Structure formats: structure tokens, C-alpha cells
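User: Just a sanity check before I run the rest of the batch. Below are the C-alpha cells for the first item. I only need the designed sequence back.
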């Protein structure tokens, strides 16, 4: 199978036995080291006023939850985390919004847990989603506007994965798994949230000793913090390179580069989110991996927003690939890749609807995903025809890779600038004048 879209899929993680988990003995010294680092992070958040006061509240809830959960017997940890997450909704959201979210979750779980045939359960959930979408679009229901964005952030993508996985599970859906998976404490604050896989989420829970997992989480929170601080710098620089302060050509090139680097805000938030989940025992993989070093568009797809790539591979690529494999390997790869980008285009508009209240299907948006999809399809063809991989030893292959990185990122940054504007006229005007 082509590596273009499927590389780096997290392999099924080995679950540690119950007795092995119970063997994770609390250690006062190691706990103190972790606690001091978390205290320093809170100080860093306060000094630099990172994000907002609600973010500081979220951090206190997560860090405090870690301090309590660490000392609890294993059998109580998950229940404590669920209670903390449900109660945390009332600290981070309006009480009415929090109550509506929990109520909506109860209705959805009642449908999932009912004895109906699976297709009827899916139909019932779609009906609930359609009613909510109507409320979001028309504002006809006496529901706070804030509810719709948070509801969408929690259920719009993870419900697809959840239904996909429970259909294939021999066990009936469990309430603790449902609550733990959907009502994730950081999701109340971060509405742009990585699409965490349900099976990976379950299997990663305390699969290793909590000390290295928590330490990894702290490092990722720190990395995310640094990226958010870097985002502030990039944002300030973007406002400085404007005509007539600099030449038009300089302004265009600089703002294309800086405009893409603003992605570090999303990358930084994703690192913080997954780092926080590490603190409560979920040994999840990283969400972005050195994407500025991508040497092809397929490689970029594998490195940037990895959770989305895995989501598309699982829900879209593999089903299409295996269905069409009899017609030829390459044909199946191309069809599956094409379906991935078509689905991604539609789902990003769907995401925009829940978060902002309207669908975003502009010409810029369509061109961005169409061109990117064609470029990845080109990489699939190249990789399929390549008989063997070139050696990376010596200066020539390294120089070639450097050129490929520069070319890939240059083209992608131009595409990103196209995607950043609402209309083609605005983007063309920016290329001519250097002004946003």
C-alpha cells in the first residue's frame, strides 16, 4: 500500500494488564519533581498572560486533577477524571451551556446504548444532529449561542469515529468510555481540537508508568507554550512588513511566510491539549511533527495535523482503497486519495459551520484543497513508479532533499495564503499591493 497517506498511523497499542497498572506505585520524590514543573508552568502562564484567564482556570483544574489522581488507587482514577471533567464544564462555561452539553450527551448515549439496530441508532443520531444544525443555522431555539460552538467542537468529528468503532466492537458501549472520550476537559476551552481516535484513546490509558507519560506531557505543554509565544512575535512582525515601509515584493514574500507561520498557534494549542491529557494518564502520540522539514506534499500530509490524517485514513482512505483494490493497486490508491481530499474539503466547511455559524465553501477554499489534492496525487504516482529509494548518505542526496523541502514549503505557503483570504479578488489584490 502506498505510504503517501497511510504512513505514521499509530499501530494498535498494547494494553497493560490490570495488575501491571496497579504496580505503578506512587513516589513522593518523583511526584514532587513533576509538581514543581507544573507550578513553574503556571507561573509562566501568569507572567506572559498566555491565552486568557479561562486558560489559567483550565490549567489549574488539570494540574490540580493530576495532583489528586496521582495518589488515588487505579480503580478510582477514571471515575475521578470523569467527575472532574463534568464539573469542570461549570468552571469553564456558562452554567446553562454546561447543563445543555451534559444533557445532549445523555441523549446521544441513550441512543447509542439502546437496543435498536445499528443503522437506526445512526439514523437517530443524524436526526438529533440535524435538529441541532437547524438551531445553529436559524437561532430559533432559546439556547445560548456559545452552546453550538462547544457542542460542535465535542461531537462533530469524534462521534463519527466513535460510531465507526463501536459498530466493530463485540462489547456494548460503556458510559464511562463515552463520558471520558467526549467530555474532555481541555475541549471546553479549545474549540479547535485534535481529532482523537477512540480506540487509541482507550488503549493509551495508563499503558505505561505515569511518571514518564506525565513528564512527556509537561515537555509538550512547554513546547506548545513556546510556540504560542512565538506566534505573538510572528503576529507582530506581520503587521510591520507592509508598504510603504518595505517594498511590495518584500511585503508579499514576507507576509506569505509569516502568514503560514501563524499556524504555530494551532500547533502550540494541540501540543498543550495532548500534554494535558498525558497528565491524566493518556499516552497519546504527538499531533504535529517537524512539518517545516517536509520534503514532499505527501510528507507534509503525514507531518502536519497527524490526528486529522489518521482520521481520514481510517474513515475514508482504507474503506475506499480496499473496496477498489481488485481494480488495481495504483487505481485504488488514487481513488482513495482523491476521496480523502474531497471529504476533507467538505468536513472543513462542516467544522466552520459549527464553530462560526455558516458554511465556508469559497472559491479560495475549493482551489486550496483541489490543488493540494492534485499535488499529493502526483506524489502517489511518483512513489508508485519509483523502483527503489535513493540513498540519503552523502552530500548530493542531502542537497536534493534540502531543495525539495524549500520547494514544497514555498508552494504550500503560497497555497496557504490563498486559503487565508475570503475571495480570489482579495488574494490577487494582496499579491499586487502587499496589503491585506
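Assistant: Here's the designed sequence for the first item:
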Amino acid at each position: 500500500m502506498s505510504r503517501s497517506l497511510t504512513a505514521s498511523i499509530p499501530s494498535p497499542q498494547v494494553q497493560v494488564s490490570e495488575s501491571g497498572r496497579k504496580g505503578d506505585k506512587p513516589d513522593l520524590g518523583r511526584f514532587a519533581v513533576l509538581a514543581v514543573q507544573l507550578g513553574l508552568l503556571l507561573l509562566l502562564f501568569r507572567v506572559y498572560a498566555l491565552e486568557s484567564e479561562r486558560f489559567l482556570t483550565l490549567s489549574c483544574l488539570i494540574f490540580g486533577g493530576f495532583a489528586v489522581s496521582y495518589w488515588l488507587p487505579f480503580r478510582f482514577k477514571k471515575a475521578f477524571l470523569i467527575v472532574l471533567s463534568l464539573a469542570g464544564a461549570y468552571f469553564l462555561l456558562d452554567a446553562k451551556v454546561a447543563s445543555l452539553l451534559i444533557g445532549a450527551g445523555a441523549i446521544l448515549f441513550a441512543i447509542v446504548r439502546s437496543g435498536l439496530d445499528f443503522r437506526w441508532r445512526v439514523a437517530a443520531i443524524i436526526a438529533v444532529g440535524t435538529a441541532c444544525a437547524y438551531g445553529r443555522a436559524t437561532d430559533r431555539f432559546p439556547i445560548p449561542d456559545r452552546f453550538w460552538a462547544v457542542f460542535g467542537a465535542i461531537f462533530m468529528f469524534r462521534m463519527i469515529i466513535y460510531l465507526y468503532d463501536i459498530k466493530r466492537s463485540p462489547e456494548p458501549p460503556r458510559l464511562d468510555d463515552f463520558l471520558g472520550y467526549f467530555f474532555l476537559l481541555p475541549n471546553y476551552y479549545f474549540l479547535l481540537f485534535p481529532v482523537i481516535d477512540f480506540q487509541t484513546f482507550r488503549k493509551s490509558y495508563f499503558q505505561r508508568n505515569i511518571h514518564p507519560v506525565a513528564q512527556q506531557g509537561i515537555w509538550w505543554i512547554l513546547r506548545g507554550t513556546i510556540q504560542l509565544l512565538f506566534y505573538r512575535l510572528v503576529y507582530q512582525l506581520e503587521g510591520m512588513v507592509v508598504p510603504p515601509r518595505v517594498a511590495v515584493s518584500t511585503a508579499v514574500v514576507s507576509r506569505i511566510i509569516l502568514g503560514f507561520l501563524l499556524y504555530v498557534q494551532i500547533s502550540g494549542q494541540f501540543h498543550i491539549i495532548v500534554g494535558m491529557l498525558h497528565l491524566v494518564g493518556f499516552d497519546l502520540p504527538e499531533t504535529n511533527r517537524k512539518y517545516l522539514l517536509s520534503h514532499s506534499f505527501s510528507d507534509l500530509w503525514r507531518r502536519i495535523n497527524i490526528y486529522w490524517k489518521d482520521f481520514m485514513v481510517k474513515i475514508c482512505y482504507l474503506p475506499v482503497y480496499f473496496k477498489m483494490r481488485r481494480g488495481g493497486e495504483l487505481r485504488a490508491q488514487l481513488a482513495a486519495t482523491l476521496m480523502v481530499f474531497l471529504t476533507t474539503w467538505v468536513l472543513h466547511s462542516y467544522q466552520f459551520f459549527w464553530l462560526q455559524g455558516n458554511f465556508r465553501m469559497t472559491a479560495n477554499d475549493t482551489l486550496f484543497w483541489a490543488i493540494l489534492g492534485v499535488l499529493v496525487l502526483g506524489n502517489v504516482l511518483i512513489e508508485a513508479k519509483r523502483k527503489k529509494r535513493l540513498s540519503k548518505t552523502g552530500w548530493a542526496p542531502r542537497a536534493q532533499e534540502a531543495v525539495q523541502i524549500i520547494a514544497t514549503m514555498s508552494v504550500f505557503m503560497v497555497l496557504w495564503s490563498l486559503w487565508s483570504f475570503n475571495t480570489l479578488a482579495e488574494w490577487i489584490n494582496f499579491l499586487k499591493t502587499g496589503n491585506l
